[in-house]
Amino acid sequence: MPRPKRGIQLPRLLNEAELVKLFNSLPNKKHKAMLFTAYSAGLRVSEIVALKIRDIDSKRMQLFIEKAKGKKDRYVNLSPVLLDILRNYVKTYIPKPKVYLFESEQTGTSYPTRTVQQIFNNAKHKAGIRKEIGVHSLRHSFATHLLDKGTDIRYIKDLLGHFNIKTTKRYLYVSKNKLVNISSPFDDLWKNEDIEW
Hints:
By secondary structure, this protein is mainly alpha-helical. The chain has a single domain, classed as Intergrase catalytic core (hpI Integrase, Chain A, Orthogonal Bundle), CATH 1.10.443. Helices cover 48% and strands 5% of the residues. The protein contains ten helices and three strands; from the N terminus they run αααβββααααααα. Helix 2 packs antiparallel against helix 4. The N and C termini lie far apart (60 Å).
């Protein structure tokens, strides 16, 4: 018997103004660097907490994501702005991280994903954002904002580590670029022809 088809669940995301409010509501530099990294590289929470200092490749401007979902390794782009932020964080944060980029001060191990979600929820509340979203919305926002800027969906698929392009295509439904930038052929005709009104 065939399984019934599931509807497409659209990703929930933050616009640029909401992102600014969210980031500015974080007083803790480590927490801020964590959420900057999530948005800047489109990472899953599990990938953020698993990042090690050695995973930063400043020569190639990439982050190495080890054994991500599906046990696949991948590289993602490292923004020059994020690199500066991470360098500053590693140099100045006390206690200085030793292995993991974002270590728990109590245990010296990676942060629990639940803690990162709580950090996000607290920042969201403080910023006055009422949307029903979690930290994963930073990843959704990353992908959608890249689409809005005209980035090819195949590159976004690779950056997100999706196995199937169908998973990535759901961002097409929320990208404002999809329909807003399609002009009516009438507009072109109006500009180029002598039509009287």
